[in-house]
Amino acid sequence: MWILSFVRKGLDTVVRSLRDLTRGEPAPSDAARVRSADPLSTTTRCFMNHLQILTSLCNLPTAPYREQHVIAWLLEFARSLGEAVRVRRDGVRNVYLEYRRGRASARGGRPLVIEAHMDHPGFVLMGRSRAGELRAEFRGGVRPSCFAGARVGFWEEREGGGRWVRTRVLGVKQVRGKRTLRVTLAGVREKLPAGAIGMWDLPDARVTKGIFAARVCDDIGGVAAIACLLKELVEQQVEGHVIGLCTRAEEVGFAGVLAVCENGWIPRGSSVIGLETSKASAGSPQGAGPIIRVGDRTGIFSPGLSYFLSQTAGHIADEDSSFKYQRKLMDGGTCNSTAFLAYGYDSAGLCLALGNYHNMTVKGEVGWGDGTKAGKAIASETIHAGDFAGMVRLLVETVRRFGKYEPGLEVLRKRLSKMHREEQQELFRANPV
Q1: Residue 333 has pLDDT above 80, yes or no
Q2: Which pLDDT does position 41 carry in this prediction?
Q3: How far apart are CA 419 and CA 415, in angstroms?
Q4: Per-residue pLDDT for 407 more than 90?
Q5: Exposed / middle / buried, residue 284 (Cβ in 10 Å: 0-12, 13-18, 19+)
Q6: Is residue 169 packed enough to be buried (19+ CB in 10 Å), middle (13-18) or exposed (0-12)?
Q7: How far is residue 334 from each of residues 228, 250, 276, 352, measured CA to CA in Å?
């Protein structure tokens, strides 16, 4: 299947990048050495596998309502995991990857849902003008001022694969009352069909000095983390009940998640952790670990579930002093976790610090100078490869410990009550004033 070509390409990138990321461990020179019995540590092998998954997914074309290539990759990946992961689709074709093992899988229908969206701001071809210029719709949040003269590639489907057909932006217009822009682009020789996916003309994913740069990280990085999580759960035979929910069309109003919530396609008692890449800043830097996102621009997430994630991350850090994590309010935008919260779900968030948010690069902001540019204000998105590895590790440990989770702040109340009864009451009696 043509999807495999992306996987092989991703593996080559992983091999080339490994020297940067393994703190001095020798990198294999080609994919054959990766497969051979080389002396690389188990941790390094695991990291290579995760980076391969991230690279393969982030090289795929995608746009709101045009996520078919990511979906095809996920379905093929799920088949590779065998019967351990069950796949289903809902009425709007969101993807559910369900893992159940052991006693924890029979806990009263309350699974842990890990959600990420499969789209990214992009172009959808609508047709041609009489003069041969391309007419496209841009779906997602990118400032119109960033479009001037920028390079774009449209994905041309071919038997056994495909290729990018390159063009450039000639003009852009806002459409009143719609979440889209109308874009005119230079004509091309190829006969691209209506519906072809366009993305900024940027190179395939690569890693340089720990920074992973790709034409899309938001939120394919989250989708990749779900895939890596499931792979680890299967290989480590972790007990638990997890649904990896990969949703559609978040960039144009949370469409996939709203369909889930409106139709009750996940159990009402579920706890949901939304995965995102969120705009980095000086207070939420890249390379400082995955971020427990306590809220977004709209509001604060479930305090009990956020507290549980913080306790889990702290547990890992106690066992391994090299593990880093952050706990931040990431208010650069509103995400799917808020939508789940609005519908009554126990909802929290994890994210990665993102450079060049939505491919918009601004001098002085995180991402400026990292990766290739497709125009004066358009560049590859970036995340830190170590932060991604930390997110996967935190997710695995969250599943291991989820059987102890109690929604709300009851666990915290019990800790505070015990401290008061066993320590403070005696101190009050001994120190009257």
Answers
A1: yes
A2: 58
A3: 6
A4: no
A5: buried
A6: buried
A7: 25, 10, 11, 15
Give me the pLDDT at residue 160, please: 79
Whose tokens are 């792979």? That residue is 231
> 337-375, pLDDT tens digit by residue?
999 999 999 999 999 999 999 999 999 999 998 879 999
User: Is residue 87 predicted with pLDDT exceeding 80?
Assistant: yes
| Distance of alpha carbon 327 from alpha carbon 311, whole angstroms | 11
Distance CA 54, CA 227 (A): 9
Q: How far apart are CA 275 and CA 316, in angstroms?
A: 19
Q: At what angle do helices 68-80 and 3-21 cross, to 10 degrees?
A: 80
Q: Which runs of consecutive H residues, i.e. helices, occur in 183-285?
A: 220-236, 255-263
| pLDDT greater than 70 at residue 105 | no
To 10 degrees, what angle do helices 303-319 and 410-419 make? 70
Distance CA 27, CA 20 (A): 9
pLDDT of residue 104: 62
What's the pTM? 0.88
Q: What is the mean pLDDT of residues 389-394?
A: 97
Q: Where are the alpha helices (DSSP H) in 296-403?
A: 303-319, 336-342, 385-401
Residue written as token pair 């799917």 = 336
Residue 21 has pLDDT above 80, yes or no: no
DSSP state of 253: T
In what order do the strands lie in the sheet containing 381-384?
206-208, 211-214, 381-384
Say if CB 145 and CB 217 are below 8 A apart: no
